[in-house]
Each structure stands twice: as structure tokens, then as C-alpha cells.
Amino acid sequence: MNDDLQAKIEEAVKNPRNLGEMKDADAIGTVGSADCGDMLRMWVKFKEQDGRKVIDRATFQTFGCQTAIAVASVATEMLAGKTVAEAQSMSGEELAAPLGPLPPVKIHCAQLVEGALRSALAGETPKEAKRVPGGPTLLGQLNAAQSDERKIKIVLDK
Ligand code: FES
Asked: Which of 1, 30, 63, 67 to mutate to test the pocket of ligand 1 (most atoms within 8 A of CB)?
């Protein structure tokens, strides 16, 4: 990993943007990575702007590596103001673009962010997330899944 990318990732990890659960979210998406076992959840709030439905804001929580945190941080900043169609068309590479190109071993970290976003935009609702034992937090759901036969919904988006 080059020094510039490493510095940007460290800065984003030190000061992540849009980190945390969004209580009034309109949509939630959660994914687990088949490559590393990490998880990421994204909350999205929409608003009407000039007659179009656009993303007002997006937040995230993750049990992921530093790259996943950094990509989610820059991606959630970029998503504000995008229409659903525009956001759906963004690849992991595009979501990570402010950091610069990722090395091949870290591309799946950006795909985790892309997968959570796509899952949210596909219409998973906060109500559905609350039905999962352990409550709506990522940590709560992970703990519940470990102590319960029922599993967290994992969406793999390759
Ligand atoms: Fe798992 Fe980066 S190594 S998300």
C-alpha cells in the first residue's frame, strides 16, 4: 500500500465521518464479506429535492478493517445528494475513489461498502432490522447471532 493511501486511510480511521446508527433511517443494509468475515451496515435517509428522491445522508457501522472504515467514511460523504439510481450505479472502486486506487487485496473492503449500500437501496427497512434478536445495532445483532440459532442476514453482492 503506498504512503499516500495509507495516510488517507489512517486519517479517515482517526476521524471517521458519518459513523454510527441512524435512528430515523429510511433504509438499512447489512453485508458480510465472504473473503474476510467482516461486516458492515449502512443506514440511509432520503429527501425530496427538485422533485427527485435523493439521499439526504448515510451513516455506517462496521466490524471491518481500516480500509473498510475509510471507504465507508468517504463513501457516505459522497452519497449525500445522489439519487437512488446514481447511488446504485456506483461501484466499490467509485465509492473508494477519494482515497485513490486500492491494492488488489483490499478491493473486497470497498465491495463490502458497495454491498451494504446496495442492500439498503434494495429496500431493507428499519422495521425488518428491528425484528432481528438483539436489537438494531450491529453489535447487538452479532451477539444475538452468536448466542442464538438464528443468524444475521448476510447479503453477498459480488
Ligand atoms: Fe475485511 Fe477489509 S479485510 S473488510
From this structure: 67
pLDDT of residue 119: 95
Question: Which atom of ligand 1 is nearest to 66's Cα?
Answer: 2
Query: What long-range pairs does 92-100 form, CB within 8 A, spacing at least 24?
Result: 95/71, 96/70, 96/71, 98/8, 98/74, 99/5, 99/8, 99/9, 99/12, 99/70, 99/71, 99/74, 100/2, 100/4, 100/5, 100/8
pLDDT of the residue at 31: 95
Residues with C-beta less than 6 Å from any ligand 1 atom: 33, 36, 38, 64-65, 67-68, 109, 112
Hey, what domains does the chain have and what are their CATH numbers? 3-145 (3.90.1010.10)
What parts of the chain have a pLDDT lower than 50? Answer: 124-132, 148-154, 158
Query: What's the pLDDT score for residue 145?
Result: 54
Of 30, 39, 40, 65, the one to substitute when testing ligand 1's pocket (max ligand atoms within 8 A of C-beta) is: 65
In this predicted structure, what is the pLDDT of residue 150? 43
What pLDDT is stored for residue 35 in this prediction? 83
Q: What is the pLDDT of residue 95?
A: 97
